Structure formats: structure tokens, C-alpha cells
Amino acid sequence: MVKICCIGAGYVGGPTMAVIALKCPSIEVAVVDISVARIQAWNSSELPIYEPGLDEVVNQCRGKNLFFSTDVEKHVSEADIVFVSVNTPTKTRGLGAGKAADLTYWESAARMIADVSKSDKIVVEKSTVPVKTAEAIERILTHNSKGISYQILSNPEFLAEGTAMKDLFNPDRVLIGGRETAEGRKAVEALKSVYAQWVPQERILCTNLWSAELSKLAANAFLAQRISSVNAMSALCEATGADVSQVSHAVGTDSRIGSKFLNASVGFGGSCFQKDILNLVYICECNGLTEVGNYWKQVIKVNDYQKSRFVNRLVSSMFNTVSGKKIGILGFAFKKDTGDTRETPAIDVCKGLIGDKAHLSIYDPQVTEDQILRDLSMNKFDWDHPIHLQPPPSPASVKQLRVVWDAYEAAKEAHGLCVLTEWDEFKTLDYKRIFDSMHKPAFVFDGRNVVDAEKLREIGFIVYSIGKPLDPWLKDMPAVA
Ligand code: NAD
Ligand code: UDX
């Protein structure tokens, strides 16, 4: 029986390994992590992450050929293939701070593999890493090799949260990069044979190591660039009376452009886009490609602009002050169908409003109060460090905040309501009831274009929808920078 071990039981390691276990009953899969709490949760009925369809797969395989354990060394030493799916955060200090990937967790995993291995291994980069990381890992492993042979493969993951199971069962492609040597090709074939259990051969792409590593950064940069492009257009739509939904439909029907990923929003979030683009920018700069780096940096700048533009619009519409006013926040996760809040635009919007002395009442169907408090008291980039290393939330910094468990409660006696995540339930709320419970004039700021703005206006709301023609009220308010 082939044995696989995955180091890192997170959003990628957990679901990916669960699917491998389901599709390959003859493979024994162990997912290991240094976080005791995470592993306990994977072994319980309350999995540590919310992902539609994940529970069913875990329940089917756990205890048969899928195991979750903190005994990292034992499982690594026994495995034939070791996936490494640990955090690769943005560096917060030192050389490259604020841009470069922090490979501390990766390096410590690699050193541990070198220490405990007693047999040949294929080591698979599952984390998103800078180009040429495989070379560094190879050096760490072979330096301590004790005669053991290691093959390093790059097998970046393209799943998106909220649709992870669907993406894993039916991926657009699986990418495997390896050394162009006989041993390298053999290792690529071994990993390919795992995926071939359920992925059609033509969708398994094999490249050299550096192409695979760079393709992951490039794919995320391209996706994020589409969102920043449509968000940049949304600002122009508001200024000109065009409607961003109509513009993106018209643009997206060109088959060369395509219709996906053109939804204007309050900004993109998630653990990957910003981190990976910053990493790409840093690599460009290290290679003397300043202009190329500046091009990609602009994608992040437009995203930051979109978030601050939203806050500015809100404050200026409400007579230029939200001091002491209650603002209801609907949605905190970075997108629907996940409880993940990493880099969610809600953090910047809420911090902006708190900075303007607003009182916030936040509701999200999947995010816990503890997480929200933690997010709003954490420094930039600190979030991507294993949870047990993160500081506890500081109540002092979040005095103006209440987390509630109902959209109606969030809206009660509020002056304004912001929609920051596109949860389906926000489409069908009783907005008349909400209107009646709010101070007047009652505002709705829809950062996801999920509410029916016309219906809400009929009720009496003043509505702002990203990239849509402005209400006369909003037009009359001072221009937003
Ligand atoms: P995560 O934080 O959810 O999980 C990482 C896990 O690794 C944590 O549980 C942490 O405790 C564990 N860990 C860290 N160092 C360890 C060590 N030395 N030994 C054992 N366990 C260790 O992160 P994630 O979202 O799963 O992302 C992992 C990687 O995959 C990142 O590089 C990310 O960029 C990439 N990625 C993420 C996504 C996504 O949607 N989240 C998609 C594609 C790629
Ligand atoms: C992304 C990539 O899609 C995935 O391939 C990669 O493996 C990890 O990073 P993820 O961050 O989980 O996945 O979600 P995604 O669906 O890409 O959404 C990212 C952010 O962009 C969310 O905040 C989402 O709301 C926003 N978004 C997405 C938009 O604002 N408009 C869109 O049209 C699409």
C-alpha cells in the first residue's frame, strides 16, 4: 500500500487529502499538523473548516484510509509521498517585509523531513511558494540525506474556498512540475498515477519545476487582475452613470475575454490573492524587473482603493460623519460559503469605520465572534501564522463593536447597513422589517450587489450599489476621492 502524508491540515491539506483518500482506496493518507486543536477538530464531528460537501467525504474515509494526527514525525517517516501544505505567509519583518513569502514553516517542515526519513521519498510542494523554492528544499533535504534519495515535485493547488470539493473532484487541470531527469520523470509519473484515479489524463499537465511554481502565482495574479479591472471600471461607472453589471456582461460576452470573475465588489479578499501577488512583485524586483513588478502592484493598489472608496462613500453619504452612529455589517467572511476571514475586505472596511468612530454590529452566518474580534485587533499579515501563535483578541481595540447572530439584530436601530459578503440569505431578508427598525434616513451600502436596489428604494432606503447609477441623494453628496 502506498502511503501519503500531508504536513499541514488546513484549508488545502484537509480537503485535498480527503479527496485523494476517497478516490484512491488503496492509498493510506495521513494528514498531520502541529496544531493539536486543528487535529482534534478533524477527528471530531465539528471539522475545523466549513466547506460544502467536505463532511460527507471525511466521514466516509476517516478511520479507513484517512487519518488525522499530530504525530508528524511518525507519519512522515513512514510515507512514500510527503505533501507539504503549510502556511507561506507574507514576511512581516526583515528583508522583503510586506512582500516576500515567509518560508519559515516550509523550511522547518523540510528539515523535519530530512531528520526523520529512513527511506526514499517524493516531496510535493502543495503550498504556494516563490519560484525556485524547490531548489532550496532540495538543498536542505540532500544536505542531510543519509543516502536517502528525494525527488521534489511542485503540485500547486487551484481550489477556491466554498467550491473546494467541486474543484477537487473536477479540476480544470492538475499541474505537476518535476526535474527533467529520469528520476524526476519517474516521480512525476508516480504522482500522476494518484490523480489519474479520477482526473482525465489530458487535464494533468506536466511541466518543469519552475514553470509549475510560477504558474500558480501567475494564475492568481491573472484572476485578481480581472477583479481589479472590473472594480476600476465600477468607479468610472458611478462617475458616468453606466452600470457595471451591464458593462461586465457586454465585455464578458467576448469569447476571448469570457464572463467569469467579472463581478464588481468591495474588493477581493482571501488568503491567496494579495499574498501571492506581493510575492510575485518581490520576485520581479529581485530579478531587476521593476516595471513588471509595478504592473502587478497596481492590482493590489486598486483593491485597496476599492475598499477605502467604499468607506469614503459611506461616510460622505451620511453627512460626513458616522461618529457614534450604529452601522450594521452583513457578512464578514471573504466570500460566501466559507467561514474564512483571511484578508476579507470586511476587515479594512470595519477598521475604516471604527477609525471614523462608528459603532458596528456585525453578523455573519459562519464566522465566530472570537474570530471577528481577533481579526479586528490583529496587525496586517499576522493572520497567516498558525493560530496557536496568534495573540488573543484585544477587547480594548474593539470597544465599538458588537457581534450578533441575526441580520435583523445587526440592523436594529442602525443608521446604515453594509453588505460585505454575498451570502444568499441577504437576498431574501425582510427589508421592510429592517427599514422599520432603523433610524431614518436609512442607508444600505451594498458591497456585493446582492440586494434588489429598486425594491429597497421603494421601501424608502437610500441605496448605494457598487458600480451602479447613483441615487440622487448620493450624487448630491461631496465627491469621494
Ligand atoms: P492553513 O493555515 O489553513 O493551513 C496550514 C497548516 O499548516 C496550519 O494548520 C498549520 O498549523 C500547519 N503547519 C505550519 N507549519 C507546520 C509544520 N512545520 N508542521 C506541521 N504543520 C504545520 O493554510 P492553507 O489555506 O491550507 O494554505 C496552505 C498553503 O496552500 C499556502 O501556501 C497557501 O498559499 C496555499 N493555497 C491555499 C489555498 C486556499 O484556498 N486556502 C488555495 C491554494 C493554495
Ligand atoms: C483563489 C483562486 O480562485 C484559487 O484558484 C486559488 O487556488 C486560491 O485563491 P479563493 O481565494 O478561495 O480562491 O476564492 P475566489 O473565488 O478566487 O475569490 C477571491 C476573492 O475575490 C473573494 O473575496 C471574492 O469575493 C472576490 N471576487 C471573486 C470578486 O470580488 N469578484 C469576482 O468576480 C470573483
From TrEMBL:
Catalytic activity: UDP-alpha-D-glucose + 2 NAD(+) + H2O = UDP-alpha-D-glucuronate + 2 NADH + 3 H(+)
Active site: C272 (nucleophile)
Family: Belongs to the UDP-glucose/GDP-mannose dehydrogenase family.
Lineage start: Eukaryota, Viridiplantae, Streptophyta, Embryophyta, Tracheophyta
The organism of origin for this protein: Perilla frutescens var. hirtella
Domain of life: Eukaryota
Entry GO terms, CC: nucleus
Known EC number: 1.1.1.22
Protein name: UDP-glucose 6-dehydrogenase
